[in-house]
Amino acid sequence: MTSELSKQYDPKITETKWQQYWENQEIFRANPEKGGETYCIVIPPPNVTGSLHMGHAFESALIDTLVRYKRMTGKNTLWLPGTDHASIAVQAILDRQLKAEKTDRYQLGREKFLERAWQWKEESGSTIVNQLRRLGVSVDWTRERFTMDEGLSHAVRTAFIKLYEDGLIYRGQYLVNWCPESRSAVSDLEVENKDIEGNLWYFRYPLSDGSGYLQVATTRPETMLGDTGVAVNPQDPRYRHLIGKTLTLPIMGREIPIIADELVDTEFGTGCVKVTPAHDPKDFEMGKRHNLAFINIMNLDGSLNENAGIFAGQDRFVARKNVVKKLDE
User: Fold this and answer.
1) Residues 60, 66, 67, 69: what is their CA dihedral angle, to the nearest 10 degrees?
2) Confidence label for 198 from pLDDT (cuts 50, 70 and 90)
3) How far apart are CA 56 and CA 61, in angstroms?
4) Exposed, middle or buried by CB within 10 Å (0-12, 13-18, 19+), for 229?
5) I need a surface site. Which of 19, 133, 151, 288 has the fewest CB within 10 A?
6) Which one, of 292, 294, 319, lies nearest residue 308 by Cα?
């Protein structure tokens, strides 16, 4: 008998039937006019980049257990559903699609590209929503949101304006992780660090008064074009007498100061560190501490800009070789 019943059970029919019933009867709809003690959870919005995975299913099952329990105890309960835009990931997916079509987002134009992004959101977002429905999560579907909805976007703008007017946030220069491929800033959480074999080049920076030179070491020679200082440790007896003097930056001919900073490791390289505030996190902090100039030598595509002098227009890796060659000369 058990065997026959199990053969007759069709999860697709059962799931669809009850999901439709729950939604039609608005079983899980929260009522703000009901009053009483409230309980609310916002679903951690899955990115519209494909389909849900086992992690989403596990997370949803845990939240659903909490929400159903609180609802059964009589609390006015809301589980708010929604999806997230995942802009960079969606852009990467669309870039691959366009590449297969032998075009790109620049040829397509901003408006057309945004249309494609919204189209992808509708397709992928629908898949995710249908999967959540199949899981039977007890969310209030009448309140479904997307992080780029006009209402949510307005709320974000309102919050940021309020924070700005209250003096809690400000706009200023900051060093970001820049991806030349996607032409976008990337958060620290999205950066994958890995160790690679590199070279350490040694350069001589002459003192402006002609009394000698300082030798610096670097793994990225092309960034020296944006140097605005050279740092030494204030406790390093080798260079203490030179603090406050200036150097003449090779190739560029720019006078840059010798500064003292505890961040400098006396054991690394020569104990003299070139400072490029616009292109290195530690240099950025040193630049702020010592009021150094911030000179950006990069274009958005990773090539060098007009601040790089004779190397302008060259890809950064090409410029790296050419800077070394020029200094050799």
Assistant:
1) 140
2) confident
3) 9
4) buried
5) 151
6) 319
Averaged pLDDT, 203-219: 93
The yes-or-no verdict on residue 125 having pLDDT over 80 is: no
The arithmetic mean of pLDDT across residues 2-9, rounded, is: 62
Encoded tokens for 69: 């329990």
Write the single-letter amino acid at 228: T
Tell me: pLDDT of 80 over 70: yes
Note the pLDDT of residue 4: 54
CA distance readout (Å), 320 to 26, 199, 277, 311: 64, 11, 18, 10
Dihedral in degrees, nearest 10, Cα atoms 271, 277, 283, 286: 90
pLDDT on residue 7: 67
Torsional sign, CA 63, 66, 68, 71:
negative
- Going by pLDDT thresholds of 50, 70 and 90, the confidence category of residue 5 is low
- Dihedrals φ, ψ of 311, to 5°? -100, 5
The candidate with the shortest Cα–Cα distance to 278, out of 220, 227, 203, 219, is 227
For residues 36 and 225, the model is more confident at 225
38 strand-pairing partners: 76
Residues 6+ apart with CB under 8 A from 161: none
